[in-house]
Amino acid sequence: MDTQKLVKECIREVPAAQRQLYDHFAESMLGVCYRYTKSMDDAEDVLQDGFVKVFKNLGQYKYEGELGAWIRRIMVTTALNFLKKNSRYNHDFSFDNENLHPVTYDNPEIKMTAKELADLVRQLPIGYQTIFNLHAVEGFSHVEIGKMLGINEGTSRSQYARARALLISWIKKNDELNLKTGVYAGK
Amino acid sequence: MPENEFERKVSSEMQDLKFKPSENVWLRVEERIKKKKKRRIFVVIFLLGGLLLLGYWQRSNLFGDSENEIAKTVQKDSPGEKQNENNSKPSIEANNSSINTQNSQTTNQSEIKKADDKVNPEESTNGKTVNEKLESEKKSSVINNGNDVSKNKISQKGNPSSDQLSKKNEKRSAKRKEPSSKSETSKNIGAVIISNDKVDNSPDQLKNADLVTPGKQSQVKDSSNINSTLPVINSKEQVSPTDQKQEKKPDVNSNTTEKSKNDSTKKNKSHQWKVGVNLQVGSSNTIESKLLHWGQSYAQLNYATGSGVGGTSYNPYHEVSSRMSYGFGVFARNDLSKRLYLNLGVNYSLLRTGVRVGNQANTSQTITNPFSYGVALDRFYRTPVNDSSKEYINKYHFLGLQSEIGWRFSNWPLVLNFGLTYNRLLTTNALIFDSGLPGFYQDKDAFLKNQLFITAGLSIPVINNKKYSLELNPFVEGSLTRVLPRSDTAQLNYTNFGLRLRVLFK
Question: Which residues in B lie closer than 8 A to residue A150 (C-beta atoms)?
Answer without folding.
Answer: 304, 308-309, 312, 314, 316, 383, 435, 438
